[in-house]
């Protein structure tokens, strides 16, 4: 999927040119290279599921998540409040959500009122469900992108999308960053390891690339 997104964004297509003009795209191709090279897709070499560590990442055990989250928060602070990053470092934001039980009320009033991050997308593979679908958060406006995707992306299923916040998902990138950034457009895009529900064939690499292109 990511390959398809990158190829489209770098193309001469008019929509791609407009997207490059309107937004700065920051792309991280993989957050678990050490685990993946040993055959894991969820756990790093320490045996930790990295997509359950976003609330309180440990720099010594989950360095990929710790420093990526720190960078995302830095992007949020840019051009909004020059003291924002230092204030967050002093408060140790990575621990504050743990002590507050994941409640968004622990975000202080010193947070910038408007984030300059428009969207965060986390690309995942799903080992049991079919189709392409999205997990979002509870903002009603978060349903707009999945609804549009269901109209233009082959195999995208809006009925398989979900927008609830379960307590067991508090440590995921989607929920933790939704609480931190306070913007609606934070998604996990899930692609089946198998196929579309209504078509009897297995996904090929080209299919996933077309999904990434369609999402753009």
Give a nutshell description of this structure.
With 216 residues, the chain is mainly alpha-helical.
What would you say this structure looks like, in words?
The chain has 216 residues and is mainly alpha-helical. It has one domain: Zn peptidases (Aminopeptidase, 3-Layer(aba) Sandwich). The chain is built from 9 helices and 3 strands, in the order ααααααββααβα. Strands 1-3-2 form a 3-stranded mixed sheet, covered by helices on one side. It is globular and about 45 Å long. It starts with a helix and ends with a helix. Residues 81-115 have low confidence and may be disordered.
Topology:
Elements: H1 2-9, H2 14-22, H3 33-36, H4 63-77, H5 84-91, H6 93-99, E1 120-126, E2 132-135, H7 144-152, H8 173-181, E3 186-192, H9 205-215
Parallel strand pairs: 1-3
Antiparallel strand pairs: 2-3
Helix pairs in contact: 1-9
For the report, how would you describe the main beta sheet? 3 strands, mixed
Number of domains: 1
The rough form would be described as: globular
Number of helices: 9
- Tell me the name of the CATH class: Alpha Beta
Give unreliable regions as ranges.
Answer: 81-115
Strand order of the largest sheet: 1-3-2
Helical residue percent?
25-40%
Using only CA atoms, what is the Rg? 18 Å
**Annotated CATH architecture:** 3-Layer(aba) Sandwich
- Average the pLDDT over all residues and give the rounded result: 81
CATH-defined superfamily? Zn peptidases
Order of helices and strands: HHHHHHEEHHEH
> What is the third-level CATH name, the topology?
Aminopeptidase
């Amino acid at each position: 999927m990511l390959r398809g997104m990158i190829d489209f964004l770098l193309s001469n297509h008019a929509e791609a040119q407009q997207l490059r003009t309107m937004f700065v795209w920051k792309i991280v191709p993989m957050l678990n290279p050490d685990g993946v090279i040993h055959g894991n897709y969820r756990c790093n070499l320490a045996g930790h599921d990295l997509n359950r560590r976003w609330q309180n990442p440990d720099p010594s055990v989950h360095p990929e998540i710790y420093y990526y989250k720190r960078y995302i928060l830095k992007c949020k602070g840019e051009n909004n409040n020059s003291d924002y990053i230092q204030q967050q470092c002093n408060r140790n934001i990575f621990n504050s959500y743990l002590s507050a039980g994941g409640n968004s009320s622990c975000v202080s009033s010193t947070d910038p009122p408007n984030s300059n991050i428009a969207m965060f997308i986390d690309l995942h593979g799903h080992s049991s469900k079919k189709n392409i679908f999205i997990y979002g958060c509870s903002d009603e406006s978060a349903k707009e992108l999945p609804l549009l995707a269901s109209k233009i992306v082959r195999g995208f299923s809006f009925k398989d999308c979900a927008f609830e916040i379960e307590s067991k998902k508090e440590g995921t990138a989607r929920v933790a960053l939704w609480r931190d950034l306070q913007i609606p457009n934070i998604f996990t895009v899930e692609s089946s390891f198998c196929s579309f529900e209504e078509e009897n064939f297995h996904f090929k690499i080209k299919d996933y690339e077309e999904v990434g292109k369609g999402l753009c």
